[in-house]
Amino acid sequence: MSQPRDNIEEQALDWLIRQREPAFDEWEAFADWLAADPEHAAIYHAMAAADERSAALFTAPSPAPIVRRAEAITPRRRIGRRSAIGLATAAALLAITSYGLLGPGSSPYAVETPPGVHRTVTLADGTRIEMNGGTRLRLDREDSRLALLDHGEAAFTVTHDADNPFVVKTGDATLRDVGTIFNVLREAGVTQVAVAEGAVLYNPDGEAVRLDAGRTLRAVDGEDHVVLGSTAPADMAGWRQGRLVYDGAPLASVASDLSRNLGLRVAASPEVAARPFRGIIMLDRDRDRLLAQLGPLLDVDVKRDQQGWTLTARTRAQP
Prior knowledge:
The protein is an alpha+beta fold.
């Protein structure tokens, strides 16, 4: 039996206020409260939306800092048909020749994890690489100071050596450690970096952007700038502790993270893909329980089909 609306509104307001506290860690209890009654979720999300709108009236949003890429000063040229054929041929050869990026005399090998499986690799110098699901790394037995991230997500805990810094290459980016723990995500032409401890130098021979602890960077292939941001170092690479932390990430990204961590296909439908989400998802080992909690937590319907699971706009009950 549903509670009186006034009681639910008081409880929803209490959750909103408590979630603003930095030490708030009752996300599982919050998810259970949302799932207990459809009215809980409806009232909570309505109050959260009103809270964000009222905050926007008094706080002018600060644009994310932007750094122009060094190569942006080079005029772009149109690519003709013959050039396009050449590029396609080069792309086809990439899989054959890519190990050459590790240099002559190298002894390359690849490490890959399927979706839903985590793995930790410890290199000869003591550097530890924690790989999320759906990740592929290329390493070199002859050089433990270089890693190539083809796709997926990895957290690097680097043994620092100022005379021989550790380097990660992914997409168009080169990352050089400055005594560091950092997370790198490479997916669909986008590179995201988050530094939890120490510092990382992004493209040291180009923009040379220094990212200190708590700083983040997002770069999209083909764009002439990168976007800088910040987040709590403790929240970076939270997937290692079974939690996904978000502060306005689109649901499309949330769905990709869930797929990588759960080993299930999770997608966001076009009508909700860009919708921002703020909160924490605890990766419950009981996947059925987690999927049941996702709908109220994300304010969506979670539908199963032949390919997996899809987040869709919530169907509201008719009054």
